[in-house]
Each structure stands twice: as structure tokens, then as C-alpha cells.
Design goal:
The chain is an all-alpha fold. It folds into two domains: about 55 residues, no CATH class; about 45 residues, no CATH class. The radius of gyration is 18 Å and the shape is globular.
Length: about 110
């Protein structure tokens, strides 16, 4: 007999979904960049990806104390990619380079690889 009680959802379902979505998003983005078709990706999609990534990354650092590269490799993003993105992120939350410098100097338990 089937139970009418809702069954607890496996906590790993959400994690597995985001892992799969991240792999897909990266592959689609890299293809669009290589083919010059980024105009087919909405700015809302980019905003969702940046919002999710930034919030998850900050949580890993702040709450879990897990320090790691923010990118899949050191050459996954150019200096221009980073500066353009960080500049707009700072503007979006009304911060300036002085605020950034204060956060940048915060001590870390270990240097990230």
C-alpha cells in the first residue's frame, strides 16, 4: 500500500541538478563565445548565472570556510573578463575600490591554490 504521507526529498537531488546545470551552462557559454553567438543568450540568463555563482561562492568562503579558485582554472577567464565583471558588480551594490581594498585585505586561513 502506498503511503499518503509526503516522502522527504533526497537532499542530493538539488545538488545533482545544479551540478548538471553548471556543466551545461558552461558548455553552452563556451560554444557561444567561440562562435560569436552570445547575442542569443539573454541578459537575464547571464544575471541568473552570475547571481547564483556569486552567492554560492561567497557562501562557500564565508560560511563553510572553503577557499578555492572562483574559476575552473587560472586561464578560464581573462583579466579583462574579471575587471569588467567586478567593476559592474561593485557598481550594482554601490561599492567602490576603497570598499574593495578593505575586503581584499581580510586575513584568510590559507592561501587558495
Amino acid at each position: 500500500m502506498l503511503s499518503s504521507k509526503p516522502q522527504p526529498q533526497d537532499q542530493s537531488d538539488g545538488a545533482a541538478s545544479i551540478e548538471a546545470a553548471a556543466l551545461t551552462a558552461l558548455a553552452v557559454a563556451e560554444k557561444a563565445l567561440a562562435e560569436g553567438t552570445t547575442d542569443q543568450i539573454s541578459r537575464e540568463a547571464v544575471q541568473r548565472l552570475l547571481t547564483a555563482g556569486a552567492r554560492l561562492f561567497a557562501n562557500k568562503i564565508e560560511m563553510e570556510e572553503k577557499f578555492f579558485l572562483p574559476f575552473i582554472s587560472r586561464d578560464a577567464a581573462t583579466a579583462t573578463d574579471v575587471v569588467v565583471t567586478v567593476s559592474e558588480m561593485l557598481r550594482a551594490v554601490n561599492l567602490n575600490t576603497f570598499d574593495l581594498a578593505m575586503w581584499f585585505r581580510r586575513p584568510r586561513p590559507d592561501d587558495a591554490p
